[in-house]
Amino acid sequence: MRIFLPFLLLFAVIACSEKPKKSPAVLAPGPITLVIHGGAGTIKRENMTPEKEKAYHAALNQALDSGYSVLERGGKSLEAVIAAIKVMENSPLFNAGKGAVFNSEGKNELDASIMDGSNLMAGAVAGVTTVKNPITAAYAVMTQSEHVMMIGDGAEKFAREQNLETVDPSYFFDSLRYNQWIKAKEADTDHAAHLIDPYIKDKKFGTVGAVALDQYGNIAAGTSTGGMTNKKYGRVGDAPIIGAGTYADNASCGVSATGWGEFFIRLAVAHDISSLVKYTDLSLDQAADSVVMKKVPKLGGDGGVIALDRQGNISMTFNTSGMYRGYIKKKGEGKTFIYRD
Ligand code: ASP
């Protein structure tokens, strides 16, 4: 015992002198910031026309402006996330809301989720077919019910009770997406064929997402999607799963993902990034990279994330050739990107 005592003392000294990681929640918050994505994938210049490129940049900028104007007038990060996502849900360029992909029965089944980093409240809907903007239904579940997630008919009924805008399922029809589904059905054995996006003639996950930091220092994150082309009836991806496609915690960061959902669920990608930020010394970028660039591909998946912490640090990381994405920290100075370079 006498021999071990000095070692024990040494251990105790080391353990006590190790600095606890400073919680970001106690640091002064950074400037109001919004970061968005419109899906990752094999998005290559050679498959894109200048007109399409322009259209994507314009749609991303419109989403950034819409969300940022909320933050600028003192609105909450949750409102900004909804405003930005609604713009992308209403655009056929993205696989969310109008322009959503078709499932194996030729239907559009939509998923969405939202989370409030200030109190870890969250809401989600899955498999909805008549809610015009599924992100608003996710918000309603969070704020107007005692639940976190509602699905199918029940979620639709609840959305109607909440007076959310509903539409005939035909509203979501888009002929390019429909033809994409027909092709995917024909090539049923080839998973990649399910993902060939008719807008860019290549493989793409077109989910949309946003993460915002408001002037009160609160982070919110949201994600909305039509899922994956030719997915089986009732299939639910990562987008509406809190901790997989979406997560927000003021003490770490907010995350929204896009990619092959099954892998993102199995790795609890959004929560994993948040935990790495919270419990290790990794920076936001290092945390996002270690999950998206290492863990996801190692398991066989692909995709990307956007993330934002309370200091206003941003990460937009993806293991595909492109990801529609952008951020804004100053009025009129939104920056949008498509490719890796
Ligand atoms: N993550 C979505 C899903 O698996 C697909 C996407 O990102 O586009 O449903």
TrEMBL record:
Q: Where is this site: Cleavage?
A: G206, T207
Where do the TM regions start and end? none
Task: State the UniProt keywords alphabetically.
Answer: Autocatalytic cleavage, Hydrolase, Protease
Name the Pfam families for this protein.
Answer: Asparaginase_2
Q: What InterPro entries does UniProt report for this protein, alphabetically?
A: Ntn_hydrolases_N (IPR029055), Peptidase_T2 (IPR000246)
Looking at the record's lineage, which domain of life comes first? Bacteria
Residue positions of the active site: T207
GO terms classed as biological process: proteolysis
MF terms (GO), sorted A to Z = hydrolase activity, acting on carbon-nitrogen (but not peptide) bonds, in linear amides; peptidase activity
Q: Which CDD domains does the entry mention?
A: Asparaginase_2 (cd04701)
Binding of substrate, residues:
R235, V236, G237, D238, T258, G259, W260, G261
- Which segment of the chain is annotated as a signal peptide? none
For this entry, the protein name equals: Isoaspartyl peptidase
Question: Could you tell me which species this protein originates from?
Answer: Ohtaekwangia koreensis
